[in-house]
Design a protein that fits this description.
The structure is a single chain. Helix 4 packs antiparallel against helix 5, helix 8 runs parallel beside helix 10 and helix 14 packs antiparallel against helix 16. With about 450 residues, this protein is mainly alpha-helical. It has a 3-stranded antiparallel beta sheet. Strands 1-2 form a two-stranded antiparallel ribbon. It has 19 helices and 7 strands. The protein has 2 domains: about 350 residues, no CATH class; about 80 residues, no CATH class. The chain is globular, with a radius of gyration of 23 Å.
Length: about 450
């Protein structure tokens, strides 16, 4: 089955490479737009915006006539990708995603080497590394422009480097970056329970500094940034655990969806139960593995709250445990049952892979592709408008800057000479439509 895993991994990488040449696809197109939009906003501030604008703090394209500074995850990825917007906007959108994909693959390779020779609960951990991009949440977001997957990969890599013998500097540095990018990446640290409490304590010297720096940024750093914020665009505030649990309890169908569709592959719980019962897979190691898996889910639910239901990438850090469960079952059954486990995964894999690459070859399959094409045509027909500069677009107010990212400009302005709208009823009376491309209406406002 190792050959099948390797073949699927290679296919996933190829699909992701092809996907970067096309539009964003679900899940969470808006999240991808906002994340890459922050990279574009950094580049605009560094190159064309007013010299008095803040060049360091995170800001969004949906800024309107203000600065648009907003608390967010630590913007390591946004800053790293920002220089690609020196290129043409259409090329930059591809280059930014290629850069993130390259980083993910480099960390994946590093993790493979770091975990080589390590076995936990009878599972070869280097195979776990190869399996993670093929399962559930990691698979869905692999190649998508969000920081969550890379953040958890960095933490998993850090843990692998120090599993046999603590590597304080290397592991500590990787963990700091991962936790600053996404605090929920700490989920992978629960694997230390397999070493026992006493042995886990030995790892605290490289783990604690990362947790402290994460706490400092997401408490005091976010509070500092909030002083410059005109409007909050991302939810970073803390809510009580009880409030989060109540919200989750009110949406039981989302909990079912998480288990049935997202953690492994669709209908895996049924495949799991049939396999376990038919093959009597219920030894000590398997019980421990499942116990730690469910404990991790409970802990991540307490940390992420209802976020985990709407934004599954918050709990992508449980993927190594998912891969361990899947591989444990593979190792415990005969060839016929191995195919019983693999075939649903392959069907789902191929179905979603087609969904990812189809818009690259047929833009009619994607509203985002049609939107980007409309923006391109309007920009081509109206070179008199200073596209991809410090000029701001009038638009209907939205927190997500889909139009701004499409044109390469800040959106939500109320005073700009030029505007773009998708519905005539949103056009201010002082603005006149001067052109239209599919669903987009280009307007000129004032005298």
């Amino acid at each position: 089955m190792k050959k099948i895993i390797l073949a699927l991994l290679v296919l996933k990488i190829v699909v992701s490479l092809i996907h970067t040449a096309g539009p964003f696809v679900h899940p969470h197109i808006i999240r991808q737009v906002d994340t890459m939009g922050m990279s574009l906003r950094y580049w605009l501030r560094w190159t064309v915006e007013d010299e008095n604008s803040n060049k360091v703090l995170p800001a969004v394209l949906a800024a309107g006539d203000g600065e648009g500074i907003t608390p967010s995850e630590f913007p390591i990825l946004n800053i790293l990708v920002a220089p690609v917007f020196e290129l043409d906007l259409e090329i930059a959108r591809v280059a930014g995603r290629l850069l993130l994909l390259l980083l993910s693959l480099l960390v994946l390779y590093g993790s493979y080497r770091a975990w080589s020779g390590v076995s936990i609960a009878g599972v070869d951990m280097k195979m776990v590394v190869l399996m993670t991009p093929l399962l559930g949440i990691h698979y869905l977001y692999f190649g998508k422009f969000i920081p969550d997957v890379l953040a958890y990969q960095l933490c998993f890599f850090a843990l692998g480097l120090s599993w046999e013998r603590p590597s304080y500097l290397k592991s500590g540095s990787l963990l700091v970056v991962g936790l600053l990018m996404k605090p929920t990446a700490i989920a992978v640290m629960i694997l230390l329970l397999f070493k026992g409490i006493r042995n886990s304590i030995k790892h605290m010297p490289w783990i604690i500094p990362g947790i402290i720096l994460m706490f400092v940024y997401y408490t005091y750093g976010v509070e500092y940034i909030s002083q410059f914020t005109e409007q909050t665009f991302f939810r970073l505030g803390n809510r009580s655990v009880m409030a989060e649990l109540v919200e989750i309890a009110e949406e039981p169908e989302e909990v079912v969806r998480l288990f049935n569709n997202l953690l492994f592959y669709p209908f895996f719980p049924i495949v799991f139960l049939v396999t376990v019962v038919a093959n009597r897979v219920w030894n000590k190691d398997f019980k421990l593995l499942l116990s730690i898996f469910f404990l991790d889910l409970v802990v991540m639910t307490l940390i992420s709250g209802s976020h985990a239901m709407d934004h599954s990438y918050y709990i992508v850090g449980v993927t190594p445990l998912c891969a361990m469960i899947f591989l444990f079952l593979l190792n415990s059954v005969n060839k016929k049952w191995k195919w019983f486990l693999f075939l649903p995964l392959i069907v789902w894999f191929l179905e979603y892979s087609f969904y990812e690459v189809a818009p690259v070859f047929d833009s009619s399959r994607s509203k985002v592709a049609q939107l980007w094409e409309s923006c391109r045509m309007l920009k081509k027909r109206h070179p008199e408008i200073p596209w991809s500069s410090d000029f701001r677009l009038r638009t209907k107010f939205t927190k997500s800057a889909s139009l701004g990212f499409c044109f390469g400009n800040i959106q939500n302005s109320k005073s700009s000479k030029w505007g773009v709208y998708e519905d005539k009823k949103d056009i201010p009376p002082e603005c006149q439509v001067i052109d239209q491309e599919q669903m987009l209406l280009l307007t000129k406002c004032g005298q």
